[in-house]
UniProtKB/TrEMBL annotation:
Belongs to the ITIH family. It comes from Nannospalax galili. Coiled coil: none annotated. I-alpha-I plasma protease inhibitors are assembled from one or two heavy chains (HC) and one light chain, bikunin. Pre-alpha-inhibitor (P-alpha-I) is composed of ITIH3/HC3 and bikunin. The lineage of its organism: Eukaryota, Metazoa, Chordata, Craniata, Vertebrata. This is Inter-alpha-trypsin inhibitor heavy chain H3. GO terms for molecular function: serine-type endopeptidase inhibitor activity. It is found in: Secreted.
């Protein structure tokens, strides 16, 4: 069985292997290098059409392979997380490969097939705060041309008085024709429009950037010449790398605007100039130990800034929770200058300590607001808000997510909204999101970064100015169907309420809508009447509108709201919501979390080449490595710390194996697929003979696939691949991807490597490097199973036995010998074990800092959790 590394794709070259082989392009002779690694990208165009906040964006890139052999061409686009991809086509030498939206399960089967045939896959990956990444790579023959065209759509939402459209610009090389061309059409008339690039000041852009607006139309064009793209006059690398942001707003002469086209309507509502409704606001702040340091300081800074923005009519209090709950005042107090002064002193004194009791913190805050209302402590015409900030998972008191949600739901009883702010990555964001949504609020992630205080304050600004509460939008009975959400607990200044639906009778003459809400002084009703004939005529006259934009806007909004509702639904209701959202996604061609895009060869539905998938929020994990989004990740890292995550429980178990250096342990053994993974233990440099204090790690890993006659040996220095007797060796200094049918190996220089066997078995090996002259420690490896769903039910080994679904029950949580780490009893595999709450680190994303995973630690080498005893897993050699 001859082994061919076909095609060995070198993504980044570190040893200049390929550079000599390029034909000199005529362009290079002119001193302009437009060919990078054999590929010339000769055109990139981002075309945006926005009609009534609904944006339709098309990104087109054209490239030619000027090398004398086949080359990989990659297309990367970062698009807003709130956008849905609606189309993608690939054109190679004039042959069009169209994209089709399919139900995810159907698409996945085709994708598996494509991968097993060695086809390149495109993915949407999580990426940054507001954007996610769409990537596709294709192999292009020498001299061939390729065109990528990606379309995505989104409804721009109004925040702080404007709509913002982000375009990530990152061409990576000089592009002969680079252009952003945006046309905005707003029937209400445009009141302001701006555009700026994060990578260069506008005056330096000079003639490259033009922006203008007049009446209903706005236009932004960014067309830098080759010289304007260079990072310096003699440079050949591109300056274009960052965000290009277009912002605008519309005239607000009337509080509402209704547009109707082809039987679909959209109703925008944003009244101006109303007085702000006083707020009763409780800040529930996590001050647990993990908030230590910068996070705590940024929280204090943000709270101080928020106090500056408080209005004298507002009432407030602070609830701090760690292992227990403390409050600033016993009840809400008015934001008088004296009280604010005292509040500032209190905020400055906040310190971190202990565990995380989310449940009791929230319940205390909620009951305080309820009591303030009952005892008429706060004004009648005021609105209550809970803002909770946490950076971790509940780990003391009531720590079951479902139970906390139930308690909070019952306590709030739909009376006011809860906003959850999740600080950093070490938390169960889905839990915070779901809990906020089911209490009429929403969750926000605060990214751990130097601007975290600004993010917190920015969030506060969005909810600081409620102009109306209990907003209801009403239409004449029986005139409207398929209405999107039409009641909102608040209308905040600077935002906008959008409702869309379908007319029962397309030929009706008059359209009437009422918006009712409670204002600061009195109850208000805004009535909007529209003469249909006039409206349709006015909109059509523009000839500007892309086809059925209101219908698509309605579909977008409906799908978005169904998906949101689905997060809190169970059983039949969830299936129903899923079915409705799926049907609309398929009908209107949206890549949502329920659908995927499959790119097919013409007249060959069997031969799929690429796929687009939308990632969810949640714990931010494997996506950054481009691995599949499966969430159960058994792993072993550090002083062999085994972590078994159980996603159904939102929890994890962990254990250590304490054995002598030189011992080889079996991690995975699958008799059906023939896969084996073993790890060899190393110790610290000056090994302490005392097994209690010594630290051991994995220094060498062996992955073997008997059926493929294939082995990989990974040490902290090098990576060796054997196919039968044929051997290839790589260093951790390489960045390479090697693929063959049913197998791909990617080495990310000095960081990690990903080994995948088809779609369904995928491992990540993380390299931990320590300072070479470190007196004690040495380099070691971590091993993560990111996907195991294609391994057989017979799979065993220290990690392999946990690939099968298993359950455990935690009870009797009580203080342990270490006051910060409670003990508990768990029942697992018919054993009753005493375990201790602890945390381990997941280093896949960031090898230096890691991501904290809280888990129940099983003592004595995992006794009772693992089948048999740990010595059963000792094997004589790596292979
Ligand atoms: C997708 O884009 C291609 C190329 O522009 C176009 O021919 C095709 O009609 C589009 N498909 C849909 C469903 O819009
Ligand atoms: C499912 O949705 C349909 C409307 O599409 C509705 O008539 C039906 O009652 C729903 N069923 C459940 C169980 O919610």
């Amino acid at each position: 069985m001859a082994f061919v590394w076909w095609p060995c794709l070198v993504l980044t070259l570190f040893f200049g292997l390929e550079t000599s082989g390029f034909p000199r392009s005529p362009l290079r002779l002119l001193g302009v290098s437009l060919v990078v690694d054999g590929i010339e990208v000769y055109s990139t165009k981002i075309s945006c059409k926005v009609t009534s906040r609904f944006a339709h964006n098309v990104v087109t890139t054209r490239a030619v392979n000027r090398a004398d052999k086949a080359k990989e061409v990659s297309f990367d686009v970062q698009l807003p997380k709130t956008a849905f991809i609606t189309n993608f086509t690939l054109t190679i030498d004039g042959v069009i490969y169209p994209g089709n939206i399919k139900e995810k399960e159907v698409a996945k089967k085709q994708y598996e097939k494509a991968v097993s045939q060695g086809k390149t896959a495109g993915l949407v990956k999580a990426s940054g705060r507001k954007l996610e990444k769409f990537t596709v790579s294709v192999n292009v023959a020498a001299g061939s041309k390729v065109t990528f065209e990606l379309t995505y759509e989104e409804l721009l939402k109004r925040h702080k008085g404007k709509y913002e459209m982000y375009l990530k610009v990152q061409p990576k090389q000089l592009v002969r024709h680079f252009e952003i061309d945006a046309h905005i059409f707003e029937p209400q008339g445009i009141s302001m429009l701006d555009a700026e690039a994060s990578f260069i000041t506008n005056d330096l852009l000079g003639s490259a950037l033009t922006k203008s607006f007049s009446g209903k139309k706005g236009r932004v064009s960014f067309k830098p010449s080759l010289d304007q793209q260079r990072s310096c006059p003699t440079c050949t690398d591109s300056l274009l790398n960052g965000d290009f942001t277009i912002t605008y707003d519309v005239n607000r002469e009337s509080p509402a605007n209704v547009q109707i086209v082809n039987g679909y309507f959209v109703h925008f509502f944003a009244p101006q100039g109303l007085p702000v409704v006083p707020k009763n606001i409780v800040f529930v702040i996590d001050v647990s130990g993990s908030m230590y340091g910068r996070k705590m300081q940024q929280t204090r800074d943000a709270l101080l800034k928020i106090l500056e923005d408080m209005k004298e009519e507002d009432y407030l209090n602070f609830i701090l929770f760690s292992g227990d709950v403390t409050t600033w005042k016993d009840h809400l107090v008015q934001a008088t200058p004296d009280n604010l002064k005292e509040a500032r002193a209190f905020v400055r004194s906040i310190k971190d300590q202990g565990m995380t009791n989310i449940n009791d913190g929230l319940l205390r805050g909620i009951s305080m607001l309820n009591k303030a209302r009952e005892e008429k402590l706060v004004p009648e015409r005021s609105t209550s808000i809970v803002i909770m900030l946490t950076d971790g998972d509940a780990n003391t008191g009531e720590s079951r997510p479902e139970k906390i949600r139930e308690n909070v739901r019952n306590a709030i009883g739909d009376k006011f909204p809860l906003y959850n702010l999740g600080f950093g990555d070490n938390l169960n964001y889905n839990f915070l999101d779901t809990m906020a949504l089911e209490n009429n609020g929403f969750a926000r992630r605060i990214y751990e970064d130097s601007d975290a205080d600004l993010q917190l304050h920015g969030f506060y600004e969005e909810v600081a100015n409620p102009l109306l509460t209990s907003v209801e939008v009403e239409y004449p009975e029986n005139a409207i169907q398929d209405l999107t959400k039409n009641n909102y607990p608040h209308f905040y200044d600077g935002s906008e309420i959008v409702v869309a639906g379908r007319l029962v009778d397309r030929d009706m003459n008059n359209f009437k809508a009422d918006v009712k809400g409670h204002g600061a002084m009195n109850d208000l009703t805004f009535t909007e009447e529209v003469d249909m004939k006039e409206m349709e005529a006015a909109l059509k006259e523009q000839g500007y509108i892309f086809g059925n934009y209101i219908e698509r806007l309605w579909a977008y909004l409906t799908i978005e709201q169904l998906l949101e509702k689905r997060k809190n639904a169970y059983g039949e209701e969830k299936e129903n919501l899923t079915a409705q959202a799926l049907e609309l996604s398929l009908k209107y061609n949206f890549v949502t979390p329920l659908t995927s895009m499959v790119v097919t060869k013409p007249e060959d539905n069997e031969n799929q080449a690429a796929i687009a998938d939308k990632p969810g929020e949640g714990r931010q994990r494997a996506e950054s490595l481009g691995t599949s989004p499966f969430s159960d990740v058994p792993s072993v890292d550090g002083d062999p710390h085994f972590i078994i995550q159980v996603p159904e429980k939102d929890d994890a178990l962990c254990f250590n194996i304490d054995e002598d250096p030189g011992t080889v342990l079996n991690l995975i053994q699958d008799p059906v697929t023939g896969l084996t993974v073993n790890g060899k233990i190393i110790g610290d440099k000056g090994i302490s003979p005392d097994s209690k204090t010594r630290k051991t790690y994995f220094g060498k890993l062996g992955i073997a696939n008997a059926q493929m006659d294939f082995r990989i040996e990974v040490t902290t220095d090098k990576i060796t691949l054997w196919n039968g007797d044929e051997r290839s060796t790589f260093s951790w200094l390489d960045t390479i991807m090697a693929t063959r049918v049913g197998l791909s190996v990617t080495i990310n220089r000095k960081k990690n490597m990903v080994v995948s066997f088809g779609d369904g078995v995928s491992f990540v090996i993380v390299l931990h490097q320590v300072w070479k002259k470190h007196p004690v420690h040495q380099d070691f490896l971590g091993f993560y199973v990111v996907d195991s769903h294609r391994m057989s039910a017979q799979t065993h080994g220290l990690l392999g036995q946990f690939f099968h679904p298993f359950d455990f029950e935690v009870s009797d949580i009580h203080p342990g010998s270490d006051p910060t780490k409670p003990d508990a009893t768990i029942v697992v595999k018919n054993h009753r074990l005493t375990v201790t709450r602890g945390s381990q680190k997941d280093f896949r994303k960031d090898v230096r800092v890691g991501t904290k995973v809280t888990c129940w630690f099983v003592h004595n080498n995992g006794e009772g959790l693992i089948d048999g005893v740990h010595t059963d897993y000792i094997v004589p050699s790596l292979f």
